[in-house]
From TrEMBL:
It holds the Pfam family HTH_34. It comes from Paenarthrobacter nicotinovorans (Arthrobacter nicotinovorans). Gene3D superfamilies: Winged helix-like DNA-binding domain superfamily/Winged helix DNA-binding domain (1.10.10.10). Residues 20-98 form the Winged helix DNA-binding domain. The lineage of its organism: Bacteria, Bacillati, Actinomycetota, Actinomycetes, Micrococcales. This is Transcriptional regulator.
């Protein structure tokens, strides 16, 4: 008798799986980078929620945060790292497997 294969849910990345972080990754996967306010507006969260979730993704090395100035005004943008794009693709593939696709 063979051992059943492990359920695909065990392959989901827990860092990415949070709804807000999932939304951040999805938005960043569609662009080279996004300004903080554009990302905030796209996923409809507060500044503090976005900041905290970006910090978690940055610590996991899935997102790169760039701070600069536009004249006198600070500007923050975010982009997916190569590792972040790889994790995103694997996460989506696992969700497809779970959904039976």
């Amino acid at each position: 008798m063979s051992t059943p294969a492990e359920h695909p849910r065990h392959q989901l990345n827990e860092v990415v799986h949070s709804p807000v972080r999932f939304s951040i990754m999805a938005a960043l996967a569609k662009a080279e980078s996004l300004d903080f306010k554009d990302l905030r507006d796209a996923i409809q969260v507060s500044d503090s929620v976005l900041s905290k979730q970006l910090s978690i993704l940055e610590k996991a090395e899935f997102v790169k945060i760039k701070k600069s100035f536009a004249g006198k005004f600070p500007r923050t943008s975010a982009s997916l790292t190569v590792a972040g794009r790889d994790v995103w693709a694997a996460h989506l593939q696992t969700l497809r497997e779970i959904a039976g696709g």
